[in-house]
Amino acid sequence: MAQHWTIRTLILVSMALSALAGFSARAASVDGPPAGPDFGAPEPSPSGDGFLHFPGFPPIPIKPRDPTSGSPGQGQAGALGQDQGKPARRPESPPNPLTPAQKAESIRKALAPRPPVAEVRRHTLDDLYAKLATARDEDEAKGLASLIGGIWMRSDSDTANLLMQRASASIEAKDFPLALKLLDRLVELQPDWPEAWNKRASVRFFSGDLDGSMEDIGQVLKLEPRHFGALEGMAAILQRTGFEKRALEIYRRALAIYPHQAAVEKIVEKLTLDVEGQGI
């Protein structure tokens, strides 16, 4: 199989053959005619057939040049020329290092103690109650009241949360004796949880124990005076037992905390006529 030669190799071969031809000529002048063929310079390729032709030797193939590389040294320059038409990419600047004061502040914040869960809950409720009082319409008020109710329903105890879930399921199933039993245990376990007292007040109300319900509502309002559910429950009991004027005051107080309640507004309107219209 013919081997492709590089240009540099062919030049060296040509120089070696020329030197050998000179040596043969000198030897012929001393010893007579040359013993071998005359090694001269290679004959040019007759038709650009891709071979070098040396007298007395078979044609030597020339390795074809890569057409994409151009002339010697053009490939690299060509590549540079192509890149010159493109905008140079700016190296991304490294982020500004923090100053010692900034580093110290970052460490201080990372090591600062986290606020207690009860404190976070209180701040969150304060913010939600403030927004609820200034709600623009019924939909906004319902959304905020739902968020508040979600916070009411959670305690710091997994056991208490489980008891609350079981009690709520019993209330939905109207199994009030079981719900009452669970809630009795819950208020013993978590006496500072307003919703535990509020749920038991609801069960006692549905069971006809209005006095017991009112007692539990009192506990709720001691722990959370803004509990609009407990206020409305108290107002309902007062209205049922004939204390319409006091009921009207409590309903209005509940509406100030949780406005845009159509059902409560109708009750207030009726009680207003019944209580304040009597003197007209």
Structural summary, described in words:
This protein has 280 residues and is mainly α. It has a domain at 117-279: Serine Threonine Protein Phosphatase 5, Tetratricopeptide repeat (Alpha Horseshoe). The chain is 64% helix and 1% strand. The chain is built from 12 helices and 2 strands. Strands 1-2 form a two-stranded antiparallel sheet. A hairpin with a 7-residue loop joins strand 1 and strand 2. Helix 9 (210-223) packs antiparallel against helix 10.
Short descriptors:
280 residues, Serine Threonine Protein Phosphatase 5, Tetratricopeptide repeat, mainly alpha
Set out the fold topology.
Blueprint (H helix, E strand, L loop, with lengths): L6 H25 L19 E2 L7 E2 L12 H11 L15 H12 L5 H17 L4 H15 L5 H15 L3 H14 L4 H13 L3 H14 L4 H13 L3 H14 L4 H15 L4
Antiparallel strand pairs: 1-2
